[in-house]
């Protein structure tokens, strides 16, 4: 996948996703971080799709040999992040709880889809058109 200590695969055209990843001060906590825009495609995105990860329904984070998806990815990123600004602190503390992350995640996905629609942006193209949306 990547030689980085942490790899985050997210929707680079989603303002919420991009800002969240930027707000979490990860490099100081984990070292090398690879940020991968799922819309760019490539071998990593294709591999994740083949493994069954729907990148329109959640980001994927690889930390060590483990993969974290959706709310679990948010919990991990929030746990690994350092406090950075008021909004970053609030998000980090709010999403460190697996229960809160799971409760909030459906609303976050809905907000993402509505924002993408308002901005005239489509969903992430799938490497394998045979996978269900």
From TrEMBL:
Record-given protein name: DCC1-like thiol-disulfide oxidoreductase family protein
Record-linked InterPro entries: DCC1-like
Domain of life assignment: Bacteria
Pfam families xref list: DCC1-like
């Amino acid at each position: 996948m990547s030689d980085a200590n942490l790899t985050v695969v997210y929707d680079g055209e989603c303002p919420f996703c991009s800002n969240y990843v930027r707000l979490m001060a990860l490099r100081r906590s984990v070292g090398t971080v690879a940020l991968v825009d799922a819309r760019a495609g490539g071998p990593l995105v294709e591999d994740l799709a083949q493994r069954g990860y729907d990148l329109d329904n959640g980001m994927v984070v690889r930390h060590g040999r483990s993969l974290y998806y959706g709310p679990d990815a948010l919990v991990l990123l929030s746990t690994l992040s350092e406090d950075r600004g008021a909004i970053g602190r609030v998000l980090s503390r709010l999403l460190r709880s697996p229960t809160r992350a799971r409760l909030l995640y459906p609303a976050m996905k809905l907000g993402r889809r509505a924002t993408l629609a308002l901005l005239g942006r489509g969903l992430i193209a799938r490497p394998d058109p045979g996978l269900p949306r």
